[in-house]
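The records we work with from here on pair a chain with its fold. These numbers are not coordinates but entries in a learned vocabulary of local backbone shapes. To see the layout at work, look at the sequence and tokens printed below.

. . .
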Amino acid sequence: MIQTTDIPVVPMPEIPESGSSAFKAFEGLSFDEAITKLANGLVSFGFKLLLAIFVFYVGKFIIRKIYKLIYSVMVNRKVDPSLTTFVLSLVKMVLYFILIVTVIGILGLETSSFLALFASAGVAIGMALSGTLQNFAGGVLILLLKPYKVGDYIEAQGYTGTVKAIQIFHTVINTVDNKAIIIPNGGLSTGSINNYSLEQYRRVDWTIGLSYGCDFEAAKAKILSMLDADTRVVKKYVEDDIVLRAEAGHSDNGPDCEENPDDPDCLEQHPEKLGWWQRFRMRRKKHQEVIQEKLREKVNMNAGIPIKADRSPFVGLNELADSSINIVVRAWTHASNFWPLYFEMNERFYKELPEAGFDFPFPQLDVHCIPSDK
């Protein structure tokens, strides 16, 4: 025979109606039982409240420690002050939001509706401020990746000028006629940027038109002698010119340590003033620089690229134009000397080439009149 057992039916708890659940919890209880249940509830809530207060203050302590840690890391890494302030504010706000949600959960309150409310509000705000958020994200990328910095001369979005300020939502540049141009960071982070200040050395180009019949070789020798006499022109290798500039007192690699002895870059020259962690980081940085330089030289050698590129002045016959022979002149110089060298050599070409017997032609047009027979 097959024995069967009755499965006990577990009664479903009744769901109290909203607005009367607190009263129905005490329905059918005597006064003593109601007082006992109320006391147990107050004791339980008291323990939860004490635990929530303890978690809140412990969380505040942890948040302060995390805040100080992030602050010290970003200061030691020399992160832009604007980005440092923003990141610290964002981290503090997010951590406090998590702490508050945790405390509410400990108290026994429902957090799902609370989180859903904030999520929906965040989506609505994000859709309303989509353009602003794009500029914000672009500002963060610019401050992190640093395609340019304050003081650089750049060309972007149809404007050319010196970067005056990099802010979270926009960048301010000053044009050469001292107009302040405010450009949103969204377009700058996704568009093309011509940073004239990124490289230490640049090539200067001139085009000189001489009359037909001039001795090109003599003109070439004269122009090369003029360039060779100027100390701002790189004679052959940029690396050699860097050494010459350092010996002449032109420093391009760091602050003036006599005026700012406490600058982090200057402290590297005095290891005795550094802590063990800073000395360790300095040795690690130098070791990585040596490895990168060796790898760069190896890649260049395998590719057949000379380690030192020849940057000697160049003069060549560029074009046989209608009224002149156009000579192209190219020379390399430090970026700080680009415009002074360009304009001063223009003046010298205009003055010294005619003195050496070379003429600048005027546009000419020969008109031949053929008499008509009547």
Notes: The CA atoms of residues 348 and 371 lie 47 Å apart. The two ends are 145 Å apart (CA to CA).
